[in-house]
Structure formats: structure tokens, C-alpha cells
Write a structure and sequence with these properties.
3 strands; alpha+beta; 17% strand; 34% helix; GMP Synthetase, Chain A, domain 3; 107 residues; 4 helices
């Protein structure tokens, strides 16, 4: 079993990487947008990410999860990444970080 500190460190690295992935329609990274619902790492060093999109018919519905998977798989210590798309609960702007809301002028 992976030790807790290693898991936390990898989790932080995943968040750092996800902050470099941007929604093409909104100039904010997907993490601060609130599109990432859950990040976990199993005993085989596989990252499991549950994410959503700003809309079900989002033009990047095909490419964004692949970009997330490829970005996370680059992290040393992660053997693979599985991305699950969900629309429950549906995304809304209340899920954005304060930083994202400031960037977009909502605050």
C-alpha cells in the first residue's frame, strides 16, 4: 500500500498539472474552474480522476479528458490515469475558486 505522504505528494503534483490545463472557452484552468470533482490514487499508482465539463455538449468533450489523462500520466510515480466524466452534479459557476471568479470578474 502506498504511504500517506507519497499519496499526498502525488495528489499535489496532480493538482499542479491540472492547473496547467485550460478550458478553451473560459481562460481559467480546469482545477480552479471546479471541473475536477475527485482525485484518488490506488495501490497500483493509478490516478482516478472524476471530472465534468462546463456543458454536456462542450466542444472539448472528447479531447479534454484525454488531455487530463495524458497530463497526469507524465507525473513520475503515476503508472496510469483513468478519467471518468460525470454530469452529476452539473457544473455551475459556484464551483469555481475565488481566484477564478476574480479572474472572470464575478467577484
Amino acid at each position: 500500500m502506498m504511504d500517506h505522504e507519497k499519496t499526498l505528494l502525488l495528489g499535489d503534483q496532480i493538482i499542479e498539472r491540472l492547473k496547467r490545463v485550460f478550458d478553451p472557452e473560459i481562460p481559467v484552468n480546469i482545477y480552479d474552474l471546479g471541473l475536477i470533482y475527485n482525485i484518488s490514487i490506488d495501490d497500483n499508482s493509478v490516478a482516478h480522476i472524476t471530472m465534468t465539463l462546463t456543458a454536456p455538449n462542450c466542444p472539448v468533450a472528447e479531447s479534454l479528458p484525454v488531455e487530463v489523462k495524458d497530463t497526469v500520466k507524465e507525473i513520475q510515480g503515476i503508472s496510469d490515469c483513468e478519467v471518468e466524466l460525470t454530469f452529476e452534479p452539473p457544473w455551475d459557476k459556484d464551483m469555481m475558486s475565488e481566484e477564478a471568479m476574480l479572474d472572470l470578474g464575478f467577484l
